[in-house]
Amino acid sequence: MDRASDRSGMKIIVFVFKNVTGGLLLCVGLLMLFLPGPGLLVVSIGLVLADIPGKRRVIVRLLRIANTHQAINNYRARQGMAPFKFED
């Protein structure tokens, strides 16, 4: 086998793993909207991982929600990073 076919097989495996993980996180996040937990944050992470059409528009709308935006900035502050800012 040559290296090119090895890489293409690995790309397919990574693509499938990333999308399955994103789909699972989307489902768990949607459940967390009604159960205790950080539902919007988990939905946002699931959307970032999944390759679906129109995801950028949905992610921007989710991140503009004050609680999600605040949770991300709190995490970034704990990591010593600058706050997340949107272009208006």
Question: Summarize this, please?
Answer:
The protein has 88 residues and is an all-alpha fold. 72% of the residues lie in helices and 0% in strands.
Task: Describe the 3D structure.
With 88 residues, this protein is mainly alpha-helical. It has one domain. Helices cover 72% and strands 0% of the residues. The chain is built from four helices and no strands. The chain has helices at residues 3-32, 39-49, 55-63, 66-78. α1 packs antiparallel against α2 (39-49) and α2 (39-49) runs antiparallel to α3 (55-63). It starts with a helix and ends in a 10-residue tail after the last helix. The relative contact order is 0.11.
- Distance, first to last CA: 51 Å
Number of helical stretches of at least 4 residues: 4
Overall structural class, as computed from helix and strand content, comes to: mainly alpha
Radius of gyration using CA atoms only: 16 Å
Which series of helices and strands comes N to C? HHHH
Task: Give the overall pLDDT as a whole number.
Answer: 83
Biggest sheet statistics: none
Tell me the helix content.
Answer: over 70%
- Give unreliable regions as ranges: none
Beta-strand fraction estimate: under 5%
Global shape: globular
| Count of beta strands | 0
Number of domains: 1
